[in-house]
Amino acid sequence: MLKDALPQIKTALPGPKAKTIIERRKNAVPDSIRCAYPCVISRGEGAMIEDVDGNIFLDWVGGVGVLNVGYSHPEIVKAVQEQAGKYLHGMMNIVTHEGYIALAEKMNEIVPVRGKTKKTMFANSGAEAIENAVKIAKSSTGRPNIIAFSGAFHGRTLLASTMTSKKAYSVGFGPFPDGIYRAEYPYLYRTPQGMDEKEAIAWYIGRLERVFEECSPADLIAAFVLEPVQGEGGFVPAPIEWVKALRKICDDHGILIIADEIQTGFARSGKMFVSNYWAEAGCAPDILTSAKSIAAGVPLSAITASSEIFGKVRPGIIGGTFGGNALACAAGLKVIEIVERDHLCERAQAIAQKCETAFRSWKEKYEQIGDIRGIGCMMGIEFVKDRKTKIPASELVAKIIAKAAFKGLIIEGAGIYGNVIRFLSPLVITDAQLEAGLAIYEECIKECSSVSDLC
After folding, report:
1. Quick check: 72 pLDDT over 80?
2. Which CATH number is 277's domain given?
3. pLDDT score recorded for residue 444
4. The pLDDT of residue 451
5. Is residue 73 part of a domain?
6. Cα–Cα distance between 354 and 426 in angstroms, integer?
7. Over 80: is that where the pLDDT of 17 sits?
8. Is residue 361 part of a domain?
9. Is the pLDDT of residue 104 over 90?
10. Domain boundary among 278, 308, 341
11. Average pLDDT over residues 76-105
């Protein structure tokens, strides 16, 4: 079966069938929607995909964090098919459908936000979830301003792209919405020289406290919005001591914390959410947004907060036609069932341990590996030209990614300098597939870092 297969490249890449489809893509799809991989998917199972020419790839991107339970999980396929046989859509403003209620109840049970009782609403994408979370925070607090962070990625809609740090994602979009300000995220690998981790965290906390002077008065800030592990920013985790400090600052000033767990959620971190770690440390967020792996590829996102916060939201400002679609809710319920039943949080921890062991051994061999970081199975390796100067090795990363694809491994870059390779493998990957992927990955690092003309 494909789900148990190993990478196998049978043709030149792209193969003849794939090449034809890629040419059609050039004529039909905007060039700005890019794809650098020489692969046209025919089918997918688990962590594996087969292209139209019969080549088999191991996917360590998983739809950028969408496929924690893997491609085409048969139970999810069945759940969607059964729901499709009843009805495809029922807008919650017009009719109530039970799938929406059941999934909201389950999310209220598992999402670690503050509050005795919780409520959940659904949208379609991560960007929609963020936009609704901001509206909820503003409506609940009566305050106009939002603080996002350096290195952040929250989406490509107008408000979300304003909150996103990297402006390559929003060139020519202006004018941008007012009331969005930026604080400094704790990127420990690139702190000022001479600081140890404790000193660096204290320095970043100090930077937080300057927000009210440099960005906005505290009584005008509705929420801080942050990714517990930055995705596009380079797989940079927020240190728990810094999160504790942020929580106290927010509590002192009546400010909410919105945790963007769009990429980190649903067992990726070794817990259902990274915010579970935060809650254990006494610094749970007020609002949590989730998407991506929530429904295994069916478009769905969620916003969860306390009943108190939702109770202050004015009617009519949140919601939408397709949010909580019946098919998506059926998939979402089954995803959570699979994650819990099959112990995917524990599986994520086991995979992460194997990867970290391998990555640490590579760091001893290859001077170009500057940092290894992440939480659970959301891990990144930062490549540099020189460990002392930490000059980003962006070209090397591009070469490794390209070479890996031709060997049957799909990996993706990240980072504000484009010098990080992310690990987002489906959590249903087999041990044999994990070992095969690690072997290909190291082979590519070795070839591209030692003999440049091979790349």
Report:
1. yes
2. 3.40.640.10
3. 98
4. 53
5. no
6. 15
7. yes
8. yes
9. yes
10. 341
11. 96
Asked if the model's pLDDT at residue 369 lies above 80, the reply is: yes
The whole-number pLDDT of residue 454 equals 39
Angstrom distance (rounded) from CA 430 to CA 47:
8
Residues 335 and 380 in one domain: no
Q: What is the CATH number of the domain that holds 400?
A: 3.90.1150.10
Residues 149 and 32 in one domain: no
Which two tokens mark 284? 């749970």
Summarize pLDDT for 403-433 with one digit per residue, the tens: 999 999 999 999 999 999 999 999 999 999 9
Residue with token string 């999810």: 76
> Would 42 be classed as within a structural domain?
yes
Q: Assess whether 230 and 252 both reside in one domain.
A: yes
**Residue 175: predicted pLDDT:** 85
pLDDT > 70 in the chain, percent = 99
Q: Is position 287 within any domain?
A: yes
More confident residue, 263 or 193: 263
Q: Tens digits of per-residue pLDDT, 317-361?
A: 898 999 999 999 999 999 999 999 999 999 999 999 999 999 999
Residues 129 and 216 in one domain: yes
Q: Are residues 325 and 362 in the same domain?
A: no
- Looking at the structure, tell me whether residues 283 and 400 fall in a common domain: no
Q: What is the rounded average pLDDT of the residues 197-216?
A: 93
Give the count of domains, the chain.
2
Residue finishing a domain among 321, 341, 361: 341
Residue 312 sits in the same domain as residue 372: no
Domain check: are 402 and 280 in the same one?
A: no
Q: Which domain holds residue 297?
A: 78-341
pLDDT of residue 453 exceeding 60, the answer is: no
